[in-house]
Amino acid sequence: MNSKYFFTGFLILFSLLVGCKAEDEVDSPIYEGSDLIIGVIGKIPEVREENVNFKSITLTELESNVAKVSNEYDAVFIMKHYLDQAGENKFAQEYKELKIPVFFIESKKSYIPFIYDDMTYEEAPNMEDQTYATGIISEEKDTFNYWGYGLYNDTENETNIKDVYSRIFTTIESEVK
Asked: How many helices (H) and strands (E) does the chain have?
């Protein structure tokens, strides 16, 4: 008899725990807009969306053919492990010439080292008010539009990271499509 109550109590507790979401996770909508093709320098991110396709590219490809990259992709993501290299002085001009947004994932230095050709990623100061991802798009000569995407409650977890990507996709659609 006691085992029956124990089992029932266990099922109720288990149901309550499974039904709860962490306080530090956002419950956000996924991007349901038009299909996107994104060039990624680094590891392709895991996202919730099925209408977003990623293709690995290199900084060399970006540098050698900005027009082709602008025509083939809706945006470019530069992942954390490539930020030092992407922040070299020679790439600032490439970001100015791109006609699509570029997003720097997990940059501790915002977009600053990527738009000035006299400052590298290493030289740029760390930013106090940090975002998980920063995006830029060249508007006119030496003028950029930029975006910053923070994590819900500043908590880095899979749910919150995927939310950032969903918001980025919405921005891409509004800027490019």
From this structure: 7, 6
Lay out the sheet containing 36-41: strands in order across.
52-56, 36-41, 75-78, 102-105, 133-140, 143-149
* Rg from Cα positions in the chain: 20
**Residue 12, token pair as written in the block:** 């109720």
DSSP state letters, 112-167: HHHH-TT--TTTSPPPSS--SEEEEEEEETTEEEEEEEPPGGG--SHHHHHHHHHH
User: Would you write out the chain's pLDDT as a tens digit for each of its 177 residues?
Assistant: 555 544 444 434 444 444 444 566 767 899 999 999 999 999 999 999 999 999 999 999 999 999 999 999 999 999 999 999 999 999 999 999 999 999 999 999 889 899 888 888 999 988 876 799 999 999 877 789 999 999 999 899 999 999 999 999 999 999 876
